[in-house]
Amino acid sequence: MSYTPKAIRGQRYPGYTKVSVRQVRRMLDEGQTFDGFLVGNNVNSFHFFGGWHLAFRIEVQSRAEFDRSLNAFLFYLEPELGNRAAIFLKRQPQPAN
Question: Which residues pair with 85 in a beta bridge?
């Protein structure tokens, strides 16, 4: 059975679940992939894919890839956009029973 991260509170965006770094790393350690986006933790959801288009889409297969992408994102993150990354996982369609 594959790991399904529980949504964390805070920002919301339709079709995505906000998750933590630890949850993403656990998914990747269990052989799953991550498909989603990173954005500064102070960014309003209007500016994710509209307005200023500040979301950074990523799809990674391994923990090393994710850590590399996260570190690059945080290095270039402007202070007014936040001091950490908000991570959003694309929701998978639920199978019909």
Answer: 40
pLDDT of residue 11: 78
Show contacts of 68-71: CB within 8 Å, 24+ apart.
69/38, 70/21, 70/38
Tokens 């850590």 found at: 67
Its pTM stands at 0.90
Distance between start and end Cα atoms, the chain: 17
Amino acid present at 85: A
pLDDT-above-70 percentage for the chain: 94
Distance CA 47, CA 27 (A): 27
Spatial strand order in the sheet of 34-40: 16-19, 85-90, 34-40, 56-60
